[in-house]
Amino acid sequence: MAEKLADRLRGKLKPRPKLRLRPEVLLCPNVPAPMHGVAPRVIMGPKWWNETRRAAYRSTSYHCAACGVWKVAAKGHRWLEGHELYEVDYAAGTMTYVETVPLCHYCHQYVHDGRMTAELQRGRMPPQKYRAVLSHGDAVLAAAGLSRPSWRERDDAIKQVIMNGRVAEWGRWRLILNGKKYPPRFKTKEAWEKEYGR
Question: Using an 8 Å Cβ cutoff, are 103 and 140 in contact?
Answer without folding.
Answer: no
